[in-house]
Design brief:
449 residues, membrane, single chain, binds ligand MTE, binds molybdenum atom, transmembrane, Molybdopterin-dependent oxidoreductase, five-stranded mixed sheet, five-stranded antiparallel sheet, 41% helix, alpha+beta, 2 domains, 14 helices
């Protein structure tokens, strides 16, 4: 081992924290081979605090919305009935509240924003990571306790967002390729990511403000490629030491990222609309043409996939209503003989797609009265399905009592198709699609919650 070079000796190396300091210095001199070649290759003159902060600002505005709408989607499942996924979240439990039935498009909005924004921010997230990637190779890897903690929070932040995006995108493609439960992973992943995000924002907000003030966006958007200059060297080392010539200006970089987001939006929003627009959602499984006619809208789980047999939904089908000590059994003719109510309501699936249709059937509150529970506090709905997570659901009192809450028998003037839940299905304003149970076989009304 060569003798220490006196010119690099620091007086502090002999002090109280001399040993750790000497260790960092040794690390500093022994950067893993190759990493400096890699970082030296990153010479984009665009990298710098301003551009990083512009992407950061875009995420600072959108990410809280994605997080909050995601948590609202969870709350909409009525976790107090033990039917949200994951069921047991320990002390990460959200306060219980009754999910409202108004506005009827509430869940359509929250799930649409969560999934839609989650898709649209992907180019911004990638651009933001690109803008800071040299920091990943910072050497020595640990300079101080504060720096180690900051890097750990960044690991959770970057790992967290990539994990949430990857699992979310796979889930809406119905690609369950991971070996774990999506809901559990996405829920806990969300909390890890959110905690890291809060730390990151607290640490970096002052720098974001300074960086954004350092350049005029208007001037930046007017600067041609040839006139693009690197930002002045910054304390974080985002600006490369030896910047290369610009191949694209900041305007071009922002246009590329913004254009990418717009393109993703254009190829996905269609899933939230009916008519020809739905077919523009090329990137999504529910963007395909659902066929025409009164039952021509997307099917989540077909009758065949659910294992419900034709003989169970035919003349032999009966609806069993239970409640205040009585049991009522009705066939479809008896239901059709009751007062019919029509409502135009959405089905909104937590996986992002939604549709609005005109449903006709019997009010749930009329069925509750028939079962001897005129003031229901909850209702448990069963279907003919024997297995599957969504073969049953519990509805809150306000969801049973809403005048538009139906056991639907018909849609758009025609009988429900087998795939849409014939002989009868649940439709409730603002209820998550998963709880709009198809092929209903029985409802238990409870007066006490
Ligand atoms: N019995 C039963 N009902 C069900 C489901 C199911 O798997 N089984 N899927 C639910 C889900 S997740 C959604 S989004 C809606 C979709 O209704 P649709 O297939 O009529 O569009 O049905 C709900 N009803
Ligand atoms: Mo769904």
């Amino acid at each position: 081992m060569p003798a220490p070079d006196p010119s690099t000796q620091d007086p502090a190396d002999t002090g109280r924290y001399g040993a750790p300091r000497r260790l960092w210095r040794a690390l500093d001199r022994h950067r893993p081979p190759g990493t400096d070649t890699v970082t030296r290759g990153w010479r984009s003159p665009l990298r710098g605090p301003w551009l990083t902060s512009v992407y950061g600002l875009a995420l600072l505005v959108t990410l809280p919305l994605v997080v909050v709408t995601g948590l609202l989607d969870y709350a909409a499942y009525a976790p107090r009935f033990g039917q949200a996924f994951p069921t047991d979240v320990g002390w990460l439990r959200l306060p219980y509240f009754d999910w409202p039935t108004r506005p009827a498009w509430l869940f359509r909005l929250t799930q649409g924003l969560h999934v839609g924004l989650g898709i649209v921010i992907v180019p911004v997230v990638l651009a933001k990571l690109w803008s800071v990637i040299p920091k990943l190779f910072d050497w020595p890897p640990a300079r101080s306790v504060a720096q180690v903690l900051e890097r750990l929070s960044l690991l959770l932040l970057v790992g967290g967002i990539l994990f949430q995006i990857a699992t979310g995108l796979l889930n809406i493609q119905y690609a369950y390729v991971f070996g774990f439960d999506f809901y559990t992973a996405h829920y806990f992943g969300a909390w890890v990511f959110t905690a890291a995000l809060v730390v990151h924002v607290v640490l970096k907000l002052p720098r974001l403000v300074t960086a954004l003030r350092s350049r005029s966006p208007g001037a930046e958007l007017r600067t041609p490629v040839a006139a693009t200059r690197p930002e002045p060297p910054d304390p974080d080392g985002l600006v490369p030491a030896r910047p290369g010539p610009p191949t694209v200006g900041r305007r071009g970089a922002l246009a590329l990222v913004g254009g990418g987001s717009l393109l993703l939006a254009a190829l996905t929003v269609g899933q939230s609309f009916d008519g020809p627009l739905r077919r523009t959602a090329w990137l999504l499984p529910r963007g395909q043409d659902p066929g025409g006619g009164p039952n021509g809208f997307p099917v989540n789980r077909s009758v065949a996939a659910a294992g419900v047999r034709p003989e169970e939904t035919g003349a032999a089908w009966r609806l069993t209503l239970r409640g205040g000590g009585t049991t009522a059994t009705l066939d479809r003719a008896a239901l059709l003989a009751m007062p019919q109510h029509t409502a135009r309501l959405p089905i909104a699936c937590v996986e992002g797609w939604s549709t609005v249709q005109t449903w006709t059937g019997v009010r749930l509150r009329d069925l509750a009265a028939l079962a001897g529970v005129p003031e229901p506090a909850s209702a448990h709905v069963r279907s003919l399905e024997r297995t599957g997570l969504f073969r049953q659901a519990t509805l809150q009192g306000n969801q049973v009592r809403d005048p538009d809450s139906l056991l639907a028998l018909r849609v758009n003037g025609a009988d429900l198709s087998a795939d849409h839940g014939f002989p009868a299905r649940i439709i409730v304003p603002a209820l998550p699609g998963v709880h709009c149970t198809k092929w209903v076989s029985g409802i238990d009304f409870r007066a006490d919650g």
